[in-house]
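WARN  no MSA supplied for this record, continuing single-sequence
INFO  ligand: zinc ion
INFO  echoing inputs
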Amino acid sequence: MAFSNLHVHSCYSLLDSIATVEQIVEYAVENGQSAVCISDHGNMSATILSQRLAREKGIKCLAACEIYEVDDDTFKNNTKEYKETRYHLLLIARNNIGLHNLYDIVSFANTEGQYIKPRIDINRIKNNGWGRGIICLTACQAGRLSKYLVNDMEEEAEEYMDDLDDTFDKVYCEIQSHSTQSQVEANKLIYDFAVEYDYPYVITTDAHMIAKDDVDSHAMFVEVSIDRELSEQYIDCFMQNEKDVLDILSNQLPIKAIKQGMQATQEIVDMCEQVDVGLDNEPQMPHIKVPSEYKNSTEYLRYLCYKTFYEKFGWMNEEEQQIRRERIEMEIPVLEELDFVDYLIMLNMISEECRRRKIPLGYSRGSGANCLCLFMLNVTQIDSVRWGLDFSRFANIGRKGTLADKSLSGVVEILRIIKVMNPITKGCYINDIANRGTLARYGEGNPVPSV
Ligand SMILES: [Zn+2]
Ligand SMILES: [Zn+2]
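INFO  complex generated
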């Protein structure tokens, strides 16, 4: 018998889980579990980091997501009275086909399906063939199977399972190793249902924290959240090993069934190939077609940099101008070596288009202010020489392969118009709560005077 936690939320389930990706991987390694599997709510933000850390530790890593499924993802009703029922469903990629289908499902849910939460309906998954290569688990008490069974809707439950069976490679009824009264009831109903209709079942923990001792700090953490899913209770939502599962479930299910439910986690891990999330890929830089009178992009970049030189520095004395010429000549070979030249030209094209459309861009943000060429290209509005800003913070040869960030918001449409990249995809910000935020949130949850 072997047990792995296959339903785990990391801190990318924002304001819901306090477990970091590092801690989750460490727990699995320390407890001799055969795989890590993070299934955050509606996003796969932990995927790359968990895959990288698991590879370093030599442990298998599954890619997963707990999605929100609804009856009809096109239906969006923007009224106060309207309360849509969203159901949880856990999807695990069993191979690279499944991984890319999972990406499609999560991307759709976060763009076109987005309404309060990222949503999608089962029909869409089925009609697009996105269930191929995916193992489906029926999730927690917010899942449809659990809801149907506790509401005495066995026929609907059966139809639903047929629907999932037609959509995904393999479907498991999920029994959660929790002792809350509502979960105990749900577990019994799910187990009886699985046995009666001969569905495989699997035991999960729906972990939102690492250890049982974290339960109080976790409770404080979720109190600061708004829009809670009230049906979720967290008392046993910690990472568990075989002993924990036996302790919690032994008075709920026959021992043999518990062992089988734990063994099913191993069965799922074995069914899943190690997916390739592109850990070894190089960053893909844009390539720009430069006007034909320029030999190459570097020559064109140099032209663009000097094009604004007299407008910007013409009023300075020769010595000041010379310092800036030398700085530009120092920066360009580094940018060339790092393959950043086309990237900078692209930023110039974006900022020119923004200016033409009167879209405000701001002065600069992050290390972009340290690059004089970006100032010459009108991407930033900061003369880095004047303010003594070190170029190596933006780019240096020792950091080859690391991308400098230069964020310009609201430019996806412009990128499409100037046709520098195809396809263009919308990025997203990944947020978490760091030290200062933690103190502020603690203050919100605890009515103590603050200074
Ligand atoms: Zn759930
Ligand atoms: Zn969950």
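The pocket of zinc ion (ligand 2) is lined by residues 7, 9, 66, 140, 206 (CB under 6 Å).
INFO  checksum written, moving to next record
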